[in-house]
What we know:
This protein is an all-alpha fold and 129 residues long. Helix content is 74%, strand content 0%. Helix 2 packs across helix 4 (65-89) and helix 3 (45-60) packs antiparallel against helix 4 (65-89). The longest helix is centred in the middle third of the chain and has 25 residues, at 65-89. The protein is flat. The model has no long low-confidence stretch (mean pLDDT 87).
Amino acid sequence: xxTCLTCIVIGAVxxxxxxxxxxxxNAFIFNMVQxxxxxxxxxxxxxxxxxxxxxxxxxxxxxxGNNMVAAVKEPIFRPLLYANTAAYTAGATQKDIPxxxxxxxxxxxxxxxxxxxxxxxxIAILIFS
Length: 129
């Protein structure tokens, strides 16, 4: 019963959205939320720094910061990674790759050592053991 009710409600919301805007619900959310966030946060080092400050603040109060912010971070930065991959496969040079800040760059340099920068804990354990 709950599954049927959920499907009916979501289907009705999707139908209302399609009748009101002329596009599907996913396309509406993409155009109204994800596109503006990509242009605002996507390739901006200051926005990324603020994002990682928010992650650190979550960690300070005992909440897994990456898990809390991943739902916002990944839909913004993963398409930028796909755009870079498409540009590279189309034959673009390193100067022609459009986005420096993408999901892989953030994971390799912003989350070095794992969630909550666990590498510092490992180094401290090695030093004092």
